[in-house]
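Hi C.,

You asked whether I'd gotten around to modeling the 225-residue construct. I have! Everything is below, sequence then structure, no commentary in between.
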Amino acid sequence: MENTGKVVIIGAGETAALAYEYFTHDSAFSVAGFSVEEKYLEVDTFLGLPVVPFENMESYYHPGQYQAFIAISSTQLNRVRTRLFQSVKEKGYRCVSYVSSRAFVWHNVEIGENCFILEDNTIQPFVKIGDNVILWSGNHVGHRTIIRDNCFIASHVVISGYCDIGENCFVGVNSTIINNIIVAKDCLIGAGVLIQRNTEEKKVYKIDGTELSRVSNLRPFREKE
């Protein structure tokens, strides 16, 4: 199916606002409106477009005429986005993906549904990206790597070649994964972490933050007497 047509964005928060901006100004898609679960429905319009209840969105936007995009971040280790993606598919919608015109994506890269790939990503040959994956800006994904469903890759991450990133992982800002690594599903990799061996399922990998120094902030700037 061609990457054109009318899209309903699921969500009405900051990620939805960003999705609207990217789809509107850097794609052939046209955003028709937004949809939110009824218990979170607080407004009738968002960015000048209608907001309808998710539970019966198909009565407003028929899946034969509209496509969908779930614009939810990594909340609950991607669980909320995953649940809504599955619900949208059960309603009969095709979910579209956004790939920035300013991303470098080699011609044989495979990308699933409901992916959000922002600017300055470098995705090398033979990479496979599953459904419902977010790659924020500025990442490197090495050749032959697989990123499985429902992952969130934050900015300036280096994933080397021949890696396998399991389902529902979060990979934090400035982290690095060396080549031939298997990251098990449901892992949270914190900012700045270096992964040099295979990980275990449902584990958190992090480094301690920079400690607060007891030295005055003026000390490095003292003039020599």
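If it helps when you're writing up: The mean pLDDT is 95.

Thanks,
B.
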